[in-house]
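[job 0412] stage=complex_fold ligand=magnesium ion status=START
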Amino acid sequence: MSDSNVSADDLHAPTKEMTVGDDLVIEINGMHKWYGSFHVLKDINLKVNLGERIVVCGPSGSGKSTMIRCINRLEEHQQGQIVVGGIELSNDLKKIDEIRREVGMCFQHFNLFPHLSIMENLVLAPMWVRNIPRAQAEETAMKYLERVKIPEQAAKFPGQLSGGQQQRVAIARSLCMSPKIMLFDEPTSALDPEMIKEVLDVMIELAEEGMTMICVTHEMGFAKTVANRVIFMDGGEIIEENEPNSFFDNPQHERTQLFLSQILAH
Amino acid sequence: MAEQTQHIVGEHPDLQPPASTVGAYGWIRENLISTPINTFFTILAIYLIYLLVPPVLDWLIFSAAWVGTDNTVCKNETGGPIAAACWPFVVAWFKPFMFGFYPDSELWRIKLTYWIFGLGVLALVIPAVPFKKWVAVFLLIPYPVICYYMYAGGSFGLVAVETPLWGGLFLTLVIAITGIVASLPIGILLALGRRSNMPVVKAVCIAFIELWRGVPLISVLFMSSVMFPLFMPEGVNFDKLIRALVGVTLFSSAYMAEVVRGGLQAIPKGQYEGAQALGLNFGKMMFFIVMPQALKLVIPGIVNTFIGLFKDTTLVGVIGLFDFLGMVQAGSSNKDWLGYLTTGFAFAALVYWVFCFGMSQYSQHLERKLHTGH
Ligand SMILES: Nc1ncnc2c1ncn2[C@@H]1O[C@H](COP(=O)(O)OP(=O)(O)OP(=O)(O)O)[C@@H](O)[C@H]1O
Ligand SMILES: [Mg+2]
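[job 0412] stage=complex_fold status=DONE, emitting structure tokens
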């Protein structure tokens, strides 16, 4: 688990009121997944409204990554239903591509393309997936690089950037596709403590602007500041789900209590 | 120690490195005599150089016959061949070595394509020249077509030149470059097929690769020239050269496939996921993200295959094509030049080496250029 929780006080305090809309953007009904005979996700039910910021936590191996990776079909589920932005995920490649265009994702290890410059990393998908002309794609890319505060790195290659900078580029790269939903899979757990804050601050700003986010993280400070719902998973199941204050102050399930006592002991 | 402590902390001046680590003496000390074993090998190497280099230079240069238009300068007192290189042989046979029996009046066609190629390569290598991408595209796609029409003739008012007249280094280059240009894309497709999830595609690709890799090139060439016509209906008669080209290409694409597959295996899963998460479909993901990285990783292996292919083209001699080496052998069995085969081989070795070394250097240049610090 993370040894370096940034406390809520250190983080950029949200200035705007973050509201949640009524439109359902993700709906998961009775979803199951197996790896071979290993039942990794069991009866997952989750509804996400537009503008929600959901933090998913739980012990290692509990299926957090697998669950959010099912949402953009990096993993295939075997039973149940996943509907994203009104499109139900099936084996139809067209629908999968359509969903992936609307869902951005940031990974623990950034997954930038090392052979391309930062700018090329950012304009590639807009140009070749959305058919946006290069000049316009570069303009958008520059805008997002400024937002994540590294416009001066545009010509460099990923290998020349620090971990925190790379993760911010990865966030900018997703944003360039103007996604409706952002998924984060432990975006800060491969980073040194001093870089965690710079990435979390970018994510908080994103939340303020009303981005719908599902974020797997152990940064409880972030969860308290930003999340409107916290989900606790263990053994492939969603064990508990609550708004952050009640979740942290008054966990219902004993496994949640155990987990929180461990993670907050640091 | 005592000297150094006199400087004020924080204001230490830059000092010269110790004398024993710089200059010629420092270099020798570091590289040639740093340990007793190192010293031993240095002496051994110098001794081997002393044994080998002077006789070779003597044979190639100092005792060699240099000027002359016939074989008289290459004979000793008893009328036998001299015990050194006979360069007039190479001069006399230079044209067949280079172009085979291609008619003199049509040689300009070959030379013109060489010039175009040379200029294209210069444009690629010199950093200041713009439009590199277009030059590369030109060399890869229209240029081979132009070459085909130029060499074969028979259209655009050019006299037809039958392939049996093609020969020498020219033929070697035609076979090698066709093989190189065609085997890379075929190899890439085979490598992708072998990693495919579709069982039939995968099985076909594995069977193809293992079949061609398991058979020696010489038998591929024999088969293509002797057996292939037997299976063809009466009257269908492929040019011998085309059969050799197909054989060489398929053979080397099987090797290329395995080289490329090695590169594909080294690409982390995260690269695929990063591309997929952005909505790139399979083709775009492969073209923009996976292949560029995989191919870059295996440049040494690709060039290795190219060099192997270039030298293997000499085997087309077995089906009666006179490539460069075949021409050298033909020349030295000419009655005027009997006994100078070694000189011919030395010349051939030099030419092959120049080409292969050139490829190797270009690959290293590419590797350095494509290095992006990861
Ligand atoms: N490709 C796979 N094949 C088989 N089992 C897998 C595979 N990927 C993950 N698993 C297993 O599925 C379970 C859930 O994995 P997952 O990566 O979703 O956990 P997680 O909650 O994200 O854990 P962590 O906090 O360590 O990232 C683990 O037990 C893991 O070993
Ligand atoms: Mg995980």
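The beta strands of chain A are 24-35, 38-49, 53-57, 79-84, 87-88, 103-106, 181-185, 212-216, 229-234, 237-242.
[job 0412] exit 0
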